[in-house]
Amino acid sequence: MTSLKEEVEEKKKLIATLRNKPWRMKRRLKLLKECQAFVEEFEGALGKGKGRKLYAYKVMMAKKMIKFNRDFDNFKTACIPWERKIKEVESHFGSSVASYFIFLRWMYGLNLVLFAFMFGLVVLPEVMMGLPYGSIPRKTVPRAEQDRAMDISVLLDFGGYCKYSILFYGFYNDERTIGVLQFRLPLSYLLVGLGIFGYSLMVVIRTMARNSDEGGDGGDDGQFTFAFKMFTSWDYLIGNPETADNKYASITTSFKESIVDEQENQKDENIHLRRFLRVLANFLILCSLGGSGFLIYFVVKRSQEFANLDQDELSWFEKNEVEFVMSLLGLVCPPLFETIAELEEYHPRIALKWQLGRIFALFLGNLYTFLFALFDEVNAKLEKEKSIRNATIWGLNEYYSNYSSYHNTTDIPPPDIHPADVIRGPCWETAVGIEFVKLTVSDIQVTYMTILIGDFLRAMIVRFLNYCWCWDLEAGFPSYGEFDISGNVLGLIFNQGMIWMGAFYAPGLVGLNVLRLLTSMYYQCWAVMSCNVPHERVFKASKSNNFYMGLLLLVLFLSLLPVVYTIMTLPPSFDCGPFSGREQMYNVVMETIENDLPAFIGNIFTYATNPGLILPAVLLMVLAIYYLNATSKNYQNANLELKKKMQMARDEEKNRRNNKENTNQVMQDLEDLLPNRSLLPPAAEEEKPPPVLEKGSKSPKVAKRPGAAANGKGVNIQKDVSLAAPNPKAAVTHPPGPRGPSGNARGPPPGPARGRGRGTPPSRR
Amino acid sequence: MGSRASTLLREEEIEEIKKETGFSHSQITRLYSRFTSLDKGENGTLSREDFQRIPELAINPLGDRIINAFFPEGEDQVNFRGFMRTLAHFRPIEDNEKNKDPTASEPLNSRTNKLLFAFQLYDLDRDDKISRDELLQVLRMMVGVNISDEQLGSIADRTIQEADQNGDNSISFNEFIKVGNLQHIYVWAGDHYLILTYILLSVLQDCLCSSV
């Protein structure tokens, strides 16, 4: 404050004496302007001069802005849904289980945005500005189906009124513009369909990039892990008993996680046996994957043969053979993989990744068969459509020729047939949409049933049958279930893949998924907290969720391919959907460019799609990717080097202090830190200098294992006392009981006041 | 209650406290009013039961020990001076204080004194060492029966191994300082200050409720 005042004074003096300075005019003018501006700005800060009010106002506004920003940030954080629920799960089950729920919440956000797109830009305009139900053929239930259209069984199969509603592709009209606002529905439909993929891609990659950023400060972790956990894990700001319970549970879990990490570092290395076992395990798993692939192929072939037979003669089993086999594989193979994986003895975090990868491969088989079957159906429908189309055109021509010959006019009104009676083509897009919706619904049902039976019923049985059973159900078989992270994560990812594929053909599917995720969150949180126990080996999830994101990205690409293929190659149905009557679906874009946009944009597009332009662009992008990859690798290496250097410096410090161990060292240390010596215990007399030779010989060990203390005795302790002693398997349901004998704190009378001032060294020694 | 507060605290006392602890005049008067509202027995001193009425301290595993730190050795009551002396540990460190009076002895809220306060929470028998048993006691309070005794023992051993440098199988104050020299424990020590403010806020709530 004073310096500011002095500066203002100085500037004022300068202004006053500026005339006398032997400088050029230009320089003087410049300096004058500067000084005047300075004085005006800061004199107000000092409470005098013209700028005072303005300055005070500015300061007040700045403060208000800061406060507003802080409040807004608080509000945004409070708006994050389910935070408390997830924290509760995390404190009881560890961060790996909680990472699943965080992933689920992220998916919910993504689906909400996709739903907003689909609903706002496609469904709403059609509903508000398009023709209502029953006005044109595509929006009406055909006469033949009308008497069964309201049956529950038909509705549950998504036929009847469901089929001819906004849920599916076939409902949408192909008029170029609708309503007062001239909204271009077909164009919007196509762009939203593709935009869903674009947006999802962007979000996934952005999340991956953001996650990889947080890999940062692992540097200090090696050093004092347990000491930090011991001394600093309690959160002193907790005042709520329930939160305190959660905090106890989370401290316990955190200790357990560290123990597991330690164990993994300490394991005995018999490399050859381990490698052999791992090869064997992978071989077994490849065999089972191959076997399941072949089984699926076989069953699909059989179902194609069955499709040619008369439908009524087949038994239920034969009709649903494919789904049955796929569900069976999905139930049997994952536990099988897990059992085989026990041969491999990986760290639980790595074992989880392997498990995820293998189940992913298994589910790809399912996906392949589903798409295969779907494609066959589409082709069949396209064939049928050709014949119906010819028949319709023939019928219309007949009508026109009859009419003109009968009435002898050329002005022929369109045929006056009720929309329900018009001959309809098989709308293959709606059929595809129905398949996806049915698949999603059955997936939801299976998931919820599995949780209900597999977890809840099992827990009930174990709890209540335990009173009258010969062996202890809770400790032995079957005991309470553990939360199956890999199965659930993959289920979520594949479900999202289905949604992406199906959203183009069934706009209502995204809304369905939003509901499903919402209920899933509450349901699964409840199920986890009430029916599951924590894993026996609680492990810390990897800091970033990038593994899940990577899988999601892969599935995104896999689901993009069929949709883009159908848009580009398959012709749309002639009488249903927003693209009816066109050669290809993307023609709507061409039409828009020709008719609605100015001419030069059409030219631009023609030039831009020239291969001569696209190929160099692709080449450039490839080179850019290579360059950025190389740079990032270099940065990572540099980072590692720096960390190593820091670690070496720390170890050297430690060594230096240990090696110079003599009675003066303690004194020297204290003198560095404290001005007074009241805290110095008379350790000089007590302490026998430990054998310096021992310390010296330990230092190479320290260099090898950074972070471990230079105490050979300590390392042995690790191995003797088993950290592998089993934890009590019960869930952490109650905090540790009464906090120790509270008399302890008051028992031995506290020594003379030390450190609260200038106490004297204890005289009782 | 409020008017009584100001009459019992004289100017000279405030000045002395200010010099000893470094709190400002207004802070001292506010803390005094809160002291009196904590003091249910209205005899100018606080007992252990008064502190245990604060929820943050009640659910804290180390709560008893923190409360104990307020009381000088062997006594069961703490007066306002003692109260302020302990609270002074939690005042945030101000960098420019160092410049003002280099000859004076270290203020109560210096970094080392904060660490010493924390150290004394763990070192129950005041022998300037945190032994393995003391660590085990703390662990048991924090974690209880959910981890087996063997593993608790190993955790305690490992902690000593990490921090111990002179091989006496216990953590002395210097070694504790080295652990605390890294960032995390600053936050922890800073949090202490915050709990005290929260304590005082809740005390205010308390006294409002009780007066209704």
From TrEMBL, chain A:
Residues 681-765 are annotated as: Disordered. It holds the Pfam family TMC. GO terms for molecular function: mechanosensitive monoatomic ion channel activity. One of its GO terms (biological process) is detection of mechanical stimulus involved in sensory perception of sound. Residues 632-670 form a coiled coil. InterPro entries: TMC, TMC_dom. GO terms for cellular component: plasma membrane. Residues 427-542 form the TMC domain. Belongs to the TMC family. This is Transmembrane channel-like protein. It comes from Oncorhynchus kisutch (Coho salmon).
UniProtKB/TrEMBL annotation, chain B:
It is found in: Cell membrane; Cytoplasm; Nucleus. Its main location: membrane. Keywords: Calcium, Cell membrane, Cytoplasm, Lipoprotein, Membrane, Metal-binding, Myristate, Nucleus, Phosphoprotein, Protein transport, Repeat, Transport. Gene3D superfamilies: EF-hand. Residues 26-61, 110-145, 151-186 form the EF-hand domain. CDD domains: EFh. The keyword Zinc-finger does not apply. It holds the Pfam family EF-hand_7. GO terms for cellular component: cytoplasm; nucleus; plasma membrane. GO terms for biological process: protein transport. The keyword Repeat applies. Belongs to the calcineurin regulatory subunit family. CHP subfamily. This is Calcineurin like EF-hand protein 1.
